[in-house]
Amino acid sequence: MTPQFSFKETLIRLVDALSRDPALQLLCILAAAVLLGIFYVARRSARIRQQASAVADARLSELLRAQNEMQGRVAAMAEVFGARQAETNQSINQRLDGLTQRLGQSISEQTRATHENLRRLQERLAVIDTAQTNIQSLAKDVVGLQAILSNKQTRGAFGQARMEAIVADGLPMGAYEFQPQLANGVRPDCVIRMPNGQPPLVIDAKFPLEAWNAMGAAKSAEASKAAAQQFRRDMEVHVRDIAEKYLLPGETQDTAFLFVPSESIFAAVHENFEAIVQKAHRSRIVIVSPSLLLLSIQVLQALLKDQRMREQAHVIQGEVVRLMEDLGRLDDRVRKLHGHFTSAQKDVDQILTSTEKLARRGARIGEMEFETAAASASVQPQQPAERGVESRTGQLKLRVVDED
Fold this sequence. Notes:
The protein is of the alpha/beta class. It folds into 4 domains: 19-135; 151-311; 323-366; 368-404, no CATH class. Helix content is 74%, strand content 7%. The protein has helices at 3-20, 22-150, 152-170, 209-216, 221-246, 263-272, 274-282, 290-311, 313-366, 373-376, and strands at residues 176-178, 190-192, 201-204, 256-259, 285-288, 370-371, 387-390, 395-398. The strands form 2 sheets. A 5-stranded mixed sheet has the order 1-2-3-4-5. 10% of the residues are buried.
């Protein structure tokens, strides 16, 4: 049996079955409808696929065209970017060159400024070295001064040297004497000769500095109190010694100076040891500092100058008398000279009067009229005051008009 016969037989049987069974007919119709729908859907899908393929081809062509355009634009942009990159590189190179040049100049200027600062620093270091050397020498001097002040004899010499400098600067030679011998055999540090034949004034330059230094170096209140008591006792003993040795009636003044070579010690003594100061005053001992001694010396200098002026008063009076005589002679001579000047002035006034007259006459002579003989014929004969002078060329007539 061939396949075509089987399909026909199958179709015939199917038609018979459909004709006998309505449900099967309906089922066949539904199946046919489904098949038609599937066929339609398949054809539509194929059509859609064809349309999608066409759209995809069109889009692909557009994408290819856009890609080509993009490639052209990318190439153009690459060229632009290359040119811009070259310009940017050139600008960066120029800026780097300028920056390098400025950096070089700045570094050279900074180097020069650094060298200048180093030179100034070296100069200042040299000055500092010099100042340090001076400070070291000053420290040595201070150490030497401390050594001097630590020794009683050298400290007394230091105070005496300062006192001598003040006295020698303030008084003339002969008005003072250092370490003279008095009648009792003692030698004060200085005596100042007073004016008007008064006894000399004694100055003592020694000062008990050990107790003072101990009082300043005390670490406790008891040690400071003990040092203050020792300083008070030393001062009282020193004041008593000055009063007994240097206050000699008829030979020295009844007052003496106790020289303290420091203003700070002088102020501290007057502030903290009033009893010592009062006792010294009662003993007619005046405690003086360098400034007070200088003031006293200036007062004595003024007194000595006044004494010398009084001693030379008669000489000054004689000189004044001779000066007045010279002034009288000068007054007489000035008066005589004034008379001579007055007479000379009168003579000068008369000379000026004569010169004025001569000047007026000269002016009139300059205004004279000179006429020739031919011109004189036309002159009227009623002018008897004219005087003529004969000449070879004609008659010259001079007309003089007296105004006086």
